[in-house]
Amino acid sequence: MAEGTTTLKGLRAQMAAAAQAQAEERRSLADNSPGPTTNAPAKPQGNRPVIDGAALRIDDRLRVAKERREEAEKQQALRDSHIMDRERKAKMQVERQVEERQKKLDEQKERRSRKIGCGGEEEAETGRGKGAL
To answer: Low complexity: which segments have biased composition (predicted)?
Structure first.
């Protein structure tokens, strides 16, 4: 790539240079043509390069496509974040339920052991206490 014309950047630079040359030529012809002359131009004209309309359309399409992709990625990240949040909450809920069940089982064990300690093994096994018929 000695010349740099085979790359997209090189071609784009060539097109921009050609468009700039055409614009300069038009400006010089407009300055020489007879017509209403004013001391100050209505719009300040800088030395901005004139780019071909097709290149502008392509650049716009690429920009819009990139913005669309970025927006889709943000939406997907948001969805993933919501899913992970729901999963975390569900996991915490399951853990709470397991802890509650374990606590109830421990309380039942403790009550049974108290019954055995107070009234004897027969009462604990049959579930009949002193007040039972």
So the answer is: 13-22
pLDDT in tens, the chain (133 residues): 444 457 888 888 888 888 888 888 888 877 765 555 555 555 555 565 556 667 778 888 899 999 999 999 999 999 999 999 999 999 999 999 999 999 999 999 999 988 887 765 555 455 555 555 5
Cα–Cα distance for residue pair 49/55, rounded to 1 Å? 13
b/e map 88-123, b = 16+ CB within 10 Å: eeeeeeeeeeeeeeeeeeeeeeeeeeebeeeeeeee
CA 77-78-83 angle, to 5 degrees, is 95
The string of DSSP codes covering 31-98 is HHS-S---SS-SS----PPP--HHHHHHHHHHHHHHHHHHHHHHHHHHHHHHHHHHHHHHHHHHHHHH
Contact in structure between 55 and 15 (CB atoms under 8 Å): yes
Residue type, 118: C
